[in-house]
Amino acid sequence: MTEEQTEVMSLGSAVRMLRQVKGWKQSQLADTIDIDRTYLSRIESDSQLPSIAMLQRIAEALEINPAFLIMLAHGSDPEIAPFIPLILDRMWATKNVRQFIMGMEG
């Protein structure tokens, strides 16, 4: 991989990763946002693209700003990409998405 190429996380992978950081099973997130678990599974596997409204519901349930979710999924932006590994490492270390996001603001 060259310096110009950056591994990009898909939107579905970002949803799955944030759900796992929160310690939830698919069924827990699906129940929280009132959708079928199979629909969430299709979103996480990138076989279904969620609507903006659904993306908002997912982000609210995960206690994050939808923009953060999109940033993770579009880390190919040359100004954002170098920070994605650091962000993910810190998120896994804290195991608490809300605590992590609040820490970024302060």
Question: What distinguishing features does this structure have?
Answer:
single chain, 106 residues, mainly alpha, 434 Repressor (Amino-terminal Domain), 7 helices, disordered N terminus
Radius of gyration: 14 Å
- The coarse silhouette is globular
Q: Which runs of at least 5 residues are low in confidence (pLDDT < 50)? A: 1-6
Helix content: 55-70%
If you had to describe this structure to a student in words, what would you say it looks like?
Helix content is 61%, strand content 0%. The chain contains seven helices and no strands. It is an all-alpha fold. The protein has helices at 11-22, 26-32, 37-44, 52-61, 66-73, 84-94, 97-105. The chain has a single domain (11-105), classed as lambda repressor-like DNA-binding domains (434 Repressor (Amino-terminal Domain), Orthogonal Bundle), CATH 1.10.260. Helix 1 crosses helix 5 (66-73) and helix 2 (26-32) crosses helix 3.
Itemize the secondary structure elements and their pairings:
Elements: H1 11-22, H2 26-32, H3 37-44, H4 52-61, H5 66-73, H6 84-94, H7 97-105
Helix pairs in contact: 1-5, 2-3
Outline of this structure?
Helices cover 61% and strands 0% of the residues. The protein is mostly helical and 106 residues long. The protein is globular and about 35 Å long.
